Q: What sequence folds into this?
């Protein structure tokens, strides 16, 4: 049994976008704040901080998760992926990201990182999702700009493109 | 919107979790998926001195068939139960209701027992446990005990769990050949304004309602139709003592109980 005392920093280690990540965290530090303030990776956004808006959605062990409802200490030894891990290289967008750009699936972009993470996971699990399952997944996110329709279009197009590529992993 | 400071204990054996809980009682809280508790901590509606993480205990992460019941351990996430291949056949009512619990992004972390421990009156899993007459298996350092769902849910977010106890598992009876579930919410995955579960019984139908009273409430009805059914549902709707809130009026909630109730009764009666 390990007991991490309140108010003191403790070492945290996990895999972040495929690379080892180390840092120190107080028990009460949320994963959102660890990523943004301690690691400096500000792609994960912070909206409501009680799990409703979905802006902070990341992947933990290949499942979507609210980083604002997770403490950094809880991901000890886990595999975490954030929006920074989506693009194949710094100068190239992934298939899903490019479809978002083409379809104007974002305006202010605040909700986008979380939505991309949810959709990336869906496209990996179900290569040809229908509109209903995309909309069901999007019910876990709030977007106040787009009305969601361009997001659904982008997701459907990305899904078709990825299926054509016939890849096992999305590279979305 | 940041939690107050707390000690974090990562239990490696169930005994360790029970010992800490026994020593620190109401100062300690069990942390499982955290999808209800961490929101409460962030808003400082809860300020425990210690959090005991039980998600690294393999003995709690099991779904087991035990006779005529299915035991779901405290470490089983909602998404894991939803993906259990036997779910639709063994627990069809749970299979109908679980997709309404939160969103895919919270079911991936949130546990079945955690939702029941939280005891939100509009949550689906407490409703289903009440509808099925399931049981909550409590454990402390000194003893084990089982409570029926009806005895466990004591009020709005209040349960009969003692401070030194944790929920080790919940059990759902396997008997629900004919069942139905319906919910009205502002957005799929949001808390229910009214949620309703129905199960066909030998005498008629058992109806359970969430989102209206302080706890989910179940009632057995004989085989009724026409105005006799309407009267019975009207009586049930009034007995639930609905209240107005920001989401809906008490009158609207009673209307939903009558309308959804009638639809579901017709659905489950052959």
A:
């Amino acid at each position: 049994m390990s007991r991490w005392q309140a108010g003191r920093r403790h070492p945290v280690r996990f895999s972040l976008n495929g690379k080892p990540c180390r840092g120190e965290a107080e028990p009460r530090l949320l994963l959102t704040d660890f990523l943004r303030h301690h690691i400096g990776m500000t792609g994960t956004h912070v909206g409501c901080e009680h799990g409703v808006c979905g802006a902070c959605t990341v992947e933990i062990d290949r499942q979507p998760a609210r980083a604002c409802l997770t403490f950094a200490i809880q991901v000890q030894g886990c595999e975490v992926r954030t929006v920074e891990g989506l693009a194949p290289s710094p100068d190239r967008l992934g298939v899903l990201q490019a479809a978002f750009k083409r379809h104007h699936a974002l305006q202010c972009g605040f909700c986008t990182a979380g939505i991309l993470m949810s959709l990336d996971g869906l496209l990996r699990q179900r290569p040809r999702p229908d509109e209903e399952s995309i909309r069901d997944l999007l019910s876990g996110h709030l977007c106040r700009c787009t009305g969601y329709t361009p997001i659904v279009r982008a997701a459907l197009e990305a899904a078709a493109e990825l299926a054509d590529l016939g890849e096992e992993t999305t590279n979305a | 919107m940041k939690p107050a400071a707390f000690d974090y204990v990562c239990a490696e054996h169930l005994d360790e979790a029970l010992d800490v809980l026994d020593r620190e009682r109401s100062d300690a809280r069990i942390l499982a998926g955290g999808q209800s508790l961490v929101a409460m901590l962030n808003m400082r509606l809860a300020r425990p001195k210690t959090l005991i993480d039980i998600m690294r205990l393999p003995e709690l992460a099991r779904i087991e068939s035990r006779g005529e019941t299915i035991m779901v351990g405290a470490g089983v996430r909602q998404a894991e139960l939803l993906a259990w291949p036997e779910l639709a056949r063994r627990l069809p009512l749970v299979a109908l209701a679980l997709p309404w619990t939160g969103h895919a992004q919270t079911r991936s972390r949130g546990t079945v027992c955690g939702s029941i421990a939280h005891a939100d009156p509009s949550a689906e899993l407490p409703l289903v446990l009440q509808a099925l007459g399931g049981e909550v298996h409590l454990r402390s350092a000194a003893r084990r005990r089982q409570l029926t769902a009806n005895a466990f849910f004591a009020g709005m977010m209040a349960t009969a769990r003692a401070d030194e106890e944790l929920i080790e598992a919940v059990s759902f009876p396997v008997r629900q050949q004919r069942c139905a579930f319906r919910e009205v919410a502002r957005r799929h995955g949001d808390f229910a304004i009214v949620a309703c579960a129905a199960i066909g019984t030998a005498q008629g139908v058992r109806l359970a309602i969430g989102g209206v009273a302080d706890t989910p409430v179940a009632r057995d009805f004989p085989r009724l139709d026409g105005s006799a059914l309407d009267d019975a549902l009207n009586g049930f709707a009034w007995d639930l003592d609905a209240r107005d809130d920001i989401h809906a009026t008490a009158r609207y909630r009673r209307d939903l109980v009558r309308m959804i109730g009638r639809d579901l009764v017709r659905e489950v009666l052959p």
Q: What stands out?
A: Chain B touches chain A at residues 1-13, 16, 31, 34-35, 38-39, 41-43, 49, 51, 53, 55, 79, 102-106, 108-109, 187-189 (CB under 8 Å). Chain B has three domains: 7-53, 61-173, 179-268.
